[in-house]
Amino acid sequence: MLQEMTRTLQTDVLVIGAGGAGMYAAIEAARRGAQVILADRGLIGRSGATVMAQMTVAAATAEPAADSVENHLADTLRAGRGLCEPELSKLLCEEGLACVREMDAWGVGWARQGEQFSPIMAPGHDRARCVYVDFLNTGPAVSRTLRTQVIRTPGVMRVGDLCLTDVVIEQGRCTGAVGLHLPSGDPIVVQAHAVVLACGGLTRLYARNSASANMGGDAYALALRAGARLIDMEFVQFFPIGHLAPRMIGMDPIMWDPFRYKLGGRLLNGKMEEFTHRYGAVDDGRYTITRDQATYAITKEVEAGRGSPHGGAWLSFAHCSPEQLKEAFGPVIGRLAKNGIDLTKTPIEVAPIAHYHMGGIAVDTAMSTGVPGLYAAGEAVGGANGANRLSGNAITEAFAFGRRAGASAAAYVANVANVASAASAASAASAASAASAASAASVANVAASASGAPEPSAAARALLGTLSPGSLAATVNTAAEIELLQQVMARHVGPFRTGQGLREGLAQIREIAARVRAAPAHRPQAFDPEWIDWLDLRTMTLVAEAVTLAAIERTESRGAHQREDYPGLDDTWLRHLQVRLPGTPAQLTLESIPVASKEAA
User: Fold this and answer.
1) What is the pTM of this model?
2) Quick one: CA torsion of 556, 558, 560, 566, rounded to 10 degrees?
3) What is the 3-state secondary structure (H, E, C) of 309-345?
4) I want to staple 281 with a disulfide (CB 3.0 to 4.6 A). Which of 276, 366, 409, 443 is the partner?
5) DSSP letter string over 488-515?
């Protein structure tokens, strides 16, 4: 029965995830002659983290006398607390700069002063370096520009509402992926000679987070099940000034960062005192301290009973005039007014929220995972940011690693995969061209075009078994289990950790995983909430375990990983913790490997 419902698509390169990294990967692979399917479980270019990023993009765009890639790299390595893989960090800074300039040529609209970019200061940088699109519009502008380029690039088929659950591995190499077509509930096989994992990070593991609902760690789980390695999973970055109160509708919870960049907002405790200096971080209203330092300072003030009424800190702009606010943020001030917020009269409350993940899939500078044909890009990649990401490097990383992964995947298809025959290549090209001519391709529309694809392999059919009805207990509420998992992660695997708390958290994560091990008892239906939640739990519990195991093992405090029972840096921990999932039964294993750079912060 399952095989009768299975849909099959075929392409050269499959890109999973259509945020900044995925779209750039698809564009680059297609520019190099590959036929591409760009798939996302949401809307193409409108889901994920990039579109929500209202802030800045780090790139050394100034004249060489004022800035350089080397200066940007030095700041990146310093923020990473000695755990950056220097070649990946260098690639981020060099190729990211080239991409920022290419995006400028594509009309993204970076803010300018005359003919020059108008960079601003951001935490952890030694000079103004971060470009942006004015009025908190960076992420939407970047996404819109890349969507336009995807549409203009021949050979890219866009498939939304596609939840891909497993990468297919045959004879040691990647041959595509399987998953669920959400609008119909039907299983689907995408046959590909190369796959790029660009589906973001894991911040949905935490109840309070700054990303979209599909950031549950899909890329990491796909990589683990395919035999790839993860590194630095313990390093989750918490954004220190996520919006807490008053209630604010329709605006990004991390929007206050650029306000501080431009206007020097003051962080105050419940007694209206500045406090970051108490924790070794001198701010002076200029917002130059790094995110891990600010998170620590706010958390400790709250624990000391000096927090704001809702358990955070005050962020005050009372020193700014209405004219200054309007000049800096234009229409945003009007949107705040509609939420009843007047920054000249009342401070707002902020608190740390899960924002970014420094760890991820281990890759080389070609973005290869070590599994032939399998690549990764963007936040899915680990190693470039070490123990703490430098502010502004997230979109830069998406650009740089996306473009490199697309180029590498296309080269692999051309030089190694050696597409089976000219006839099958022509069939795939015909299907992709027909789909990319449409405003937005759907699986239903391209199914007929892809009908010439070979039958699913034995390996693909075996993975499709995951999507067969199971015996999940009727008493298990999958939505409630996700909420419970988020609470466990916030309580025990948050920004400040102890060995006892981590071990308690690990036990609870495994209990949740045991309760939801069996699939729902009915066949997936159209946009089936129980199936979608169950698939998310399958991923989220695996990734949560990987984070927690690594956090237990690392007995020091470094960057975003803070062990209150092991305070301070320990040079013996200038090492990566590598996570693998070797064979059956599925059991994660840890291995400690030396970092390439011994340069500590």
Assistant:
1) 0.90
2) 20
3) CCCCEEEECCCCCHHHHHHHHCHHHHHHHHCCCCCCC
4) 276
5) HHHHHSSSEE-HHHHHHHHHHHHHHHHH
